[in-house]
Amino acid sequence: MTLLAMEPSNLQVLWFILIAVLWTGYLVLEGYDYGVAMLIPFLGKNEKERRVIVNTIGPLWDGNEVWLLTAGGATFAAFPGWYATLFSGLYLPLFLVLAGLIIRGVSFEYRALHPESRWRNTFDWMAATGSFIVPLVFGIGFANFVIGLPVVQAPASDRLHVLAGQPYFWQLFSPFALLGGVVLVVLSLFHGSLFLALKTKGVVHDRAVAFANTIGVVAIVGGAIFLVWKNIAYPSSFGLLDWVCLVAAAGGLAAAWWFNKSERDGIAFAGTTVAILFVAIGIFLRMWPNLGFDNSLIADPAAHLNRVTAASTELTLTIMTVAAAIFVPVVLAYQGWSIWVFRKRLSTKNIPDDVHHVAVPSA
User: Fold this and answer.
1) What is the pLDDT of residues 160-207, one digit of tens each?
2) Counting C-beta atoms within 10 Å of the first and last residue's C-beta, which end of the chain has fewer, N or C?
3) Beta bridge partners of 161
4) Other CB atoms closer than 10 Å to residue 325's CB: what's the count?
5) Domain layout of the chain by residue ranges
6) Cβ contact 179:144 at 8 Å
7) In angstroms, what is the C-alpha Rg of the chain?
8) Residue 79's closest CA among 277, 330, 287, 230?
9) CATH architecture entry for 9-350
10) Could you tell me if 292 and 20 are in contact, meaning their C-beta atoms sit under 8 angstroms apart?
11) Backbone angles phi, psi at 114, to 5 degrees
12) Could you give the percent of the chain with pLDDT greater than 90?
């Protein structure tokens, strides 16, 4: 393969960027869902308060989850080599993600179907547990993309790749990767508590502000350590942009913490949104051009797994681009409308005294 053939086409670059955008949207939108759900057993002291917390994300969580499905589907269609290598080698972590999503979804749908407190408390803890598992695993996973997952050519194939040392599970838990998992959990808690402060009033709002004030310090310190470690040990090919992303992410977290102290809820939530955005940008900059893989075990550069060798044909990418241009604006408009409809703050005054048969609202 010539050097010219190894250069990515415009559509390959476009779809890598679109996949990065989808993952970033997922981390921003589901990030606060996970944070809020993890806080249900801790910030809700009675059933009405827990109902307020659940209702802040009730109309939104399943719509936000679609960003994950779309990111996975786009990866499968645009870069099938990328998708196949990840899903064939990381089935154990992906099973944990699936289990966490199922546990969380079931808890939201079933918690209101029985009036006993023990029943509801069980499902509240299930929601918190499932919402803890998913960002933990994804944080560890993205940290390993920063390090680079080692790949080799599949036996009897010059086009397929597999992860070296399968089954690939315990190799994921390096100190840097574990820090990535913890940081994403803490960042989700900070993001979620600020969302909860933005969407509530009264005692739940006050507890969310107080919790955000504490967890924000942990997020700032942990995020700074992770990003500095990443930029020094695993720099991308973009050099200065790594540090621009670090400064922007740190500034977003610091602004979120500062404005939360003065109860400027909207600006504080925007701060963590900016932080997540730039952390994601920094990670995807590192993943370009090898998609988060380490090809050092493959001697022939033409056989490396990267943005070109993992991509679909130009015809496939063209059809996908046309479909995305038509349907993505429709989906964004619908999601924006849903957020606008459910924009008002909630308090325990909005929860009826008889809450035994009130179902969780769905999008």
Assistant:
1) 899 998 778 899 999 999 999 999 999 999 999 999 999 999 999 999
2) N
3) 153
4) 9
5) 9-350
6) no
7) 21
8) 287
9) Up-down Bundle (1.20)
10) no
11) -145, 135
12) 84
